[in-house]
Write a structure and sequence with these properties.
The complex is a heterodimer of chains A (178) and B (330). Chain A is of the alpha+beta class. In chain A, 25% of the residues lie in helices and 13% in strands. Chain B has one domain (70-329). Chain B has eleven helices and two strands, in the order αααββαααααααα. In chain B, strands 1-2 form a two-stranded antiparallel sheet. Classes of the chains: A alpha+beta (178), B mainly alpha (330).
C-alpha cells in the first residue's frame, strides 16, 4: 500500500499484445478479416441516411421552429392584443409590435387593442421560445417547421399575415417511441 | 514474317476494342465504387444524376473537362504535361496482355487478347514500373512539397513491393512452366492456381494493392497528410488522367490475378463463354478492392516499409522455394 491515497486508486490498464513479429502478423490478419466483416455488416444492414428534400427528419412535438400567431376558432378574432410582452421578453430583439385601438367597425382582436404591425425578424430570432412564454393569451406559439431559408434578408422578416397563415409546408412530427 | 490482311485488321481492331473497353469500364467501376462505398458506410451513394446515379461519372468527367489545367509558377510545365500521359499510356498498354479467351474461342484463329507476349509477366512488371515514372515526374514537376512527398512515397513503395509482387508470380510461372499470361491461363485447365499457390495469391493481392497505391496503401496520395500527394497541383483532365490510370491499374491487377490465380477464362459452359467468366472474375477482384478500401485504415509509412521488407518479401521467397522443392520432388 502506498502512503498516498491516490496511488492506490491507480488501475492497471489492460494492454493489447505487443505489435510486430509473427504473432503480430497473425493478429493483424485476423483484425483485417474482422474489419471486412464489419463493413459487410453495414451493407447487409441497409442505409441509415434520410434523403432530405424528399424525406424530412421528423421533429419532436416540443421542437421550436417557425412561430405561429393564432386566432380564436369560434369568432375568428386574433388572440394577440398588441401588449408587446413578447417583444420585451425577446433576448434577440427581433419582434416589433405596433399596437392600435380596436373600434366597433374594425374589431381585429378580442381585447381593447390589437397589433397593427407584428413582425419577427427570422434572421435574428434564436428560437428560445420566450415570446411563447411571455404571451398572456397564447397568441404566439412556436411551430415545428425548420425550413426557413430564403434568398434575401428582407424576405426573412415575417409579417403578421405570414405568421397568421398556415405554414406553407408541414414538418412531420416524430411518432411516439421513434 | 509476312503480315496478312486478316492479321492487319486484327492489329487495328484489337487496340480499338481495348480502348473502348477501358473507356467503358472505368466509369462503371467508378459508379460501382461510389455506390458500394456508400453502402459500406450505411448511406446510399450518388443517386441524383440519372437513374440511381448512373450518370454521376459522366457528370464528374464533364466537371473535370471544364476545369482549368493550371500550372504553378515553380513547376516544370512540359513535365507536368507528359506525366499524366505516361501514367495512362502505361496503364492501357498493360491491359493488352490480359487474356479474355483462348485462340479460336469465338471462331477463327484469333485469340481474345491484345497480344500474347512470351514475356507476359515481365511485360506487366515493366509497364508497372514505368507507370511510376508518371507519378514521380508528376510529383517532381509540380514544384510543391506535398507533391514531392507523394512522389517520394510512391518511389519507395514501388521498390518495396515490386519485388514481392514479382516473387509471388514466380511461383505461378514455375508451376505453369511459362511466363506468357496466355500459357499460364491455359495450363490451369485442371486446377486453378489459387489452390496450390494460395500463399502466392495472398502476397500478390497485398502487393497489388501497393502497386495500385490504393487503400490501405494509398500513401502517395494520403489526403489527410499531404493533401493529395503527387496529383495535388494537377487540375482538369490532367488530374482526370491520373485518376483514370489508377482505376485502369485496378482493372489490370484484378485481371492479372484472375488470369494467373483464378483460372482466367476457364469456367463451366462452352469455351465461347470464356470472356464472360474472365470478366466476372475480374469484377470480383475490383469489388474486393472496393471492399478493402471501405474497411482498412491507411498504413503508416514505416509500417508499410517494414511490412514489405520484413514480412512480405521473406514470405514470397519462402513460397518460391517451397514451390521449387515441390516441383522438383513431384
Amino acid at each position: 500500500m502506498s502512503p498516498f491515497a491516490w496511488e492506490n486508486d491507480v488501475v492497471e490498464v489492460e494492454r493489447g499484445p505487443e505489435p510486430g513479429g509473427l504473432g503480430g502478423a497473425y493478429r493483424a490478419f485476423g483484425e483485417t478479416l474482422r474489419g471486412l466483416r464489419t463493413t459487410l455488416g453495414r451493407v447487409v444492414e441497409g442505409h441509415h441516411t434520410i434523403q432530405y428534400p424528399e424525406e424530412k427528419t421528423p421533429v419532436y412535438p416540443r421542437f421550436r421552429g417557425r412561430h405561429k400567431l393564432h386566432r380564436f376558432e369560434d369568432t375568428g378574432l386574433e388572440k394577440c392584443v398588441g401588449c408587446s410582452l413578447c417583444a420585451a421578453a425577446c433576448p434577440a430583439k427581433c419582434i416589433r409590435v405596433v399596437a392600435a385601438e380596436n373600434t366597433p367597425e374594425n374589431q381585429v382582436s378580442a381585447g381593447e387593442r390589437y397589433a397593427a404591425v407584428y413582425e419577427i425578424n427570422m434572421t435574428r430570432c434564436i428560437f428560445c421560445g420566450y415570446c411563447e412564454l411571455a404571451c398572456p393569451f397564447d397568441a404566439i406559439t412556436m411551430g415545428n417547421d425548420y425550413e426557413l431559408a430564403d434568398y434575401s434578408r428582407s424576405d426573412l422578416i415575417f409579417t403578421k399575415e405570414m405568421l397568421l397563415a398556415e405554414p406553407p409546408e408541414h414538418t412531420p412530427l416524430r411518432r411516439a417511441g421513434e | 514474317m509476312v503480315i496478312g490482311l486478316e492479321s492487319t485488321i486484327w492489329l487495328i481492331v484489337k487496340p480499338i476494342v481495348i480502348f473502348a473497353f477501358v473507356l467503358g469500364i472505368v466509369p462503371i467501376i467508378l459508379w460501382i465504387e461510389r455506390k458500394l462505398l456508400g453502402r459500406f458506410q450505411s448511406r446510399l451513394g450518388p443517386n441524383r444524376v440519372g437513374f440511381r446515379g448512373l450518370m454521376q461519372p459522366a457528370a464528374d468527367v464533364l466537371k473535370l473537362l471544364s476545369k482549368e489545367a493550371s500550372t504553378p509558377e515553380t513547376a516544370v510545365p512540359w513535365m507536368m504535361a507528359i506525366a499524366p500521359v505516361i501514367s495512362i499510356v502505361t496503364a492501357v498498354a498493360t491491359l493488352a496482355i490480359i487474356p479474355w479467351g483462348p485462340v479460336g474461342a469465338w471462331g477463327g484463329d484469333v485469340g481474345l487478347y491484345g497480344i500474347d507476349v512470351s514475356i507476359g509477366v515481365l511485360y506487366f512488371f515493366a509497364f508497372g514500373s514505368l507507370a511510376f515514372y508518371g507519378l514521380m515526374l508528376g510529383g517532381w514537376a509540380s514544384g510543391s512539397k506535398y507533391s514531392f512527398l507523394g512522389a517520394m512515397r510512391s518511389a519507395a513503395q514501388l521498390i518495396s513491393y515490386e519485388v514481392a509482387l514479382g516473387l509471388s508470380l514466380l511461383g505461378v510461372a514455375m508451376t505453369a512452366g511459362s511466363i506468357s499470361i496466355v500459357d499460364i491461363v491455359a495450363s490451369q485447365d485442371n486446377i486453378w492456381y489459387v489452390v496450390p499457390q494460395f500463399v502466392g495469391f495472398c502476397i500478390f493481392l497485398v502487393a497489388g494493392f501497393a502497386e495500385t497505391s490504393r487503400a490501405p496503401f494509398d500513401l502517395p496520395e494520403a489526403d489527410a497528410e499531404i493533401v493529395s500527394g503527387y496529383n495535388t497541383e494537377f487540375g482538369g483532365m490532367r488530374f482526370g488522367s491520373f485518376f483514370m490510370a489508377e482505376y485502369i491499374e485496378v482493372v489490370i491487377i484484378s485481371g492479372i490475378a484472375a488470369a494467373c490465380f483464378l483460372g482466367g477464362w476457364h469456367g463451366p459452359g462452352p469455351e465461347a463463354l470464356g470472356p464472360l467468366w474472365m470478366f466476372l472474375k475480374l469484377m470480383l477482384g475490383v469489388l474486393f478492392f472496393i471492399w478493402i478500401r471501405a474497411s482498412l485504415p491507411r498504413l503508416r509509412y514505416d509500417q508499410l516499409m517494414s511490412f514489405g521488407w520484413k514480412i512480405l518479401l521473406p514470405l514470397a521467397t519462402l513460397n518460391v522455394l517451397a514451390t521449387a522443392i515441390v516441383l522438383v520432388v513431384t
